[in-house]
Design goal:
Layout lengths: L2 H30 L6 H7 L4 H8 L2 H21 L6 H18 L1 H9 L10 H11 L3 H7 L5 H23 L8 H18 L9
Helix pairs in contact: 1-4, 1-6, 4-5, 4-6, 4-7, 5-6, 5-8, 5-9, 5-10, 9-10
Length: 208
């Protein structure tokens, strides 16, 4: 076997180990939550040394950040697929889809917001941008619903609206505190969207 073949085999082995480490970390986060994730457990499950994990990802933050990037990419793909033919239905669809994703991947989504970098290092800018891009998907339908509103106000309103939806869902899914039955949570989220749109003058309040 020549040097080129040996190098190719090493790279293939390294690539497989990287994929395996990520699969294990993702599975452990999904089942037990980020706070229970330990580099030793990941390394043992991947049948490699802790040093190999660090060599591949720089540090354990690198593993978690990679999993978190994949989570927000999967979330965004689901949100982008929401039909955009009607802006009000789109807003409801975005909120409902976020709830569905959060219900299916609660711990992975929590990891995205709970993770703190070691030694107080700054959080990677690319993940912050990815999260904001997901939240900003409510911007376009609000622009269509409020064409005469200051664009800066609409941008802020879209972020606030998605942040509020995120808060309602996060608290509703928190089993230790105020867990809400799934159907009730869906109703609450839909009710919030309608109430918010009424407050903005987009929907007319119901006349009793």
């Amino acid at each position: 076997m020549n040097n080129v073949q040996e190098e190719t085999l090493r790279e293939q082995k390294k690539g497989k180990r990287r994929v395996l480490v990520l699969e294990i970390a993702r599975r452990l986060i999904a089942s037990k939550g980020l706070r229970s994730l330990k580099v030793r457990d990941v390394a043992e499950a991947a049948d490699c040394s802790i040093g190999s994990v660090y060599n591949e990802f720089g540090d354990f933050d690198g593993v978690i950040l990679t999993v978190n990037r994949e989570t927000v990419q999967a979330l965004t793909a689901r949100l982008v697929a929401v039909p955009a033919d009607d802006p009000i239905r789109q807003l409801h669809g975005l909120a409902a889809t976020y709830l569905e994703f959060a219900s299916e991947h609660a711990n992975l989504l929590r990891s995205l917001f709970e993770h703190r970098m070691e030694e107080d290092r700054p959080f990677p800018e690319d993940i912050l941008i990815m999260v904001m891009d997901a939240f900003n998907l409510m911007h376009e339908p609000l622009v269509r619903l409020m064409p005469d509103r200051d664009p800066r106000d609409v941008a802020l309103l879209s972020r606030m609206m998605f942040s509020a939806v995120h808060g309602i869902i996060s608290l509703g899914l928190e089993e230790r505190m105020v867990a809400v039955p799934p159907e009730s949570l869906r109703q609450q989220v839909a009710q919030f969207v309608d109430t918010h749109l009424k407050g903005l003058g987009i929907l007319k309040p119901e006349v009793s």
